[in-house]
Amino acid sequence: MPKSITPKPKTCPPRRLTLPWLMLCLIITIGVISFIYADGFTVLYRTWYSFTLPNIQLEVNPQSTIIATNSPIPIYIDLRLKNKQGQFLLLDDNDIITTILSGQADITEADKASADASKRLWLRAPSQPQLIALTFNYKHLEEHLTIEAYDPTPPVVPIIKAPVTGTNFTTATPTISGETVDNNPVEIYVDGILNSTIRSENNKFSGPLATALKRGKHKLTAAAVNKYGIRSMFTTAITIDIQTPDPEIDLVNLLIKPNPVKAGNTFQIFVPISSNTRSVQLVFDGTNYPLQDSNNSSVYSGIVHAPRNTGLYRLSIKITTTSAENILAEKVASIQVN
After folding, report:
1. N or C: lower Cβ tally within 10 Å for the chain?
2. What is d(CA 294, CA 101) in angstroms, rounded to the nearest whole number?
3. Which of 333, 327, 274 is nearest to 300 (CA)?
4. Residues 144 and 203 in one domain
5. Contacting residues for 108 by C-beta, under 8 A, at least 6 apart
6. Does residue 188 share a domain with residue 140?
7. What 3-state class would DSSP assign to 26?
8. Tens-of-pLDDT digits for all 338 residues of the chain?
9. Is the peptide bond before 258 cis (omega within 30 degrees of 0)?
10. Packing angle, helices 40-52 and 19-37, rounded to 10
C-alpha cells in the first residue's frame, strides 16, 4: 500500500509591531510610570472614597488669621464636621488630625468644644514673626489654614509737613501732606475725632480732608497705622483756621416759571449758587422743598406745587455748606398764585 503523508501545518512568521502600536505602548508605559510617581493610587482612592463617603463637610473657622508674637492670649480654631442637613457631627475614634506643615506653634485641644463646633484647638503665639501653615484631616477630607504671627511694635510716628500751625484756609477741606515709614496709611484726626485716612506712596502722603470743617480754629493730629491695625503715637497737634466764605446766590439769574402760577399747579425754580454748597432747599408757605444740581452746574432746580390759596408768596433759600453750616437767605424772590 502506498505510504500516506500527513501534511505539516504551515507556520506563520511572527508579526512585528508597527510604529503606531509601539507609540501606543510607549504612551501607556509613560502614563503608568507618571501615575505611580504622582501617587496616583492615593488620588484614585480618595476620589473613589469621596463618592462613597456620606455628604460631610469639614470647616475650619479660626478666631483670627493673625496673632501677635509673644501674645499671652491664644487664639482658637474651631473645627466643624457637618452633614448635608447642616447638623454638627460628634467625633468618634476617627478624630481630626492636625499637622503643622511649616512654622512653629503650640497647639492644644480644648477640654470642651463650643456649642457650634466639633472640636476647638488653642494656638499660642510663637516668639518670632512667621507664617504657620496647618492642615486638618478627617478621613479623606482635608482643609488648610495659614496663621501669621506678626511683630506688635507700633509704627513710627508720621510727620505732618503741611499745613503748618496757624495757617488760614478759605476751603473747608484743606490738603494734609507729610512723610511716613513703610508706606503705612496715615489717619488724620481733627479735634480728637478721626476725619480721614490718607494712603501713602514712596513714604509720602498727601490728600484733602474727607469731612469738611466748620469755620473756626481746629487742631490736627496724625497717626500711622499698619496692616495689623497697630497705631503709632500721635503727632504734636497743629492749629489751623477755617474761614470759608458764604455761598452767594445769583439773584439776577434766579428764574421762576411760570410766574404767576395757578393755584394747585406746579412751577419750576432755578437758583444759581456759588461753590461751597452741599444742599439747597426752597422755603415758602411753611414747607422746605429740596432742590437738585442735576448737571453739576451750580444751578439748583426743582418742580414745586403751588399753594391752593391765591396770593403773593415770598420765597427763601436755605443753603447747607460743605462744612455742614446752614445759611438762610430770606425772601430772595416772590411768586404770585392766582
Report:
1. N
2. 59
3. 274
4. no
5. 121, 122, 124
6. no
7. helix
8. 455 555 555 555 555 556 677 777 777 877 777 666 666 555 555 555 445 445 778 899 999 999 999 999 999 999 988 776 666 666 554 578 899 999 998 999 988 767 778 889 999 999 999 999 999 998 878 999 999 999 999 999 999 999 999 999 998 899 999 999 999 999 999 999 999 999 999 999 999 999 989 999 999 999 999 999 999 999 999 999 999 888 889 999 999 999 999 999 999 999 999 878 889 999 998 889 999 998 888 999 999 999 999 999 999 999 998 888 888 999 999 999 99
9. yes
10. 70
Q: What pTM was estimated for this model as a whole? A: 0.66
Side-chain half-sphere CA neighbours of 152 within 13 A: 10
Question: In the listed set 150, 168, 196, which residue is the last one of a domain according to the structure?
Answer: 150
Host domain of residue 94: 56-150
* 3-class SS of residue 173: coil
- Give the CATH number of the domain where residue 78 resides: 2.60.40.10
Q: Please, which residues bridge with residue 223 across strands?
A: 187
Query: ∠ CA(193), CA(194), CA(196), 5° rounding?
Result: 145
> How does strand 186-190 pair with strand 141-150?
unpaired
Q: From edge to edge, which strands make up the β-sheet containing 238-242? A: 167-169, 238-242, 216-224, 186-190, 193-198
The cell numbers describing 136, all together, are: 486638618
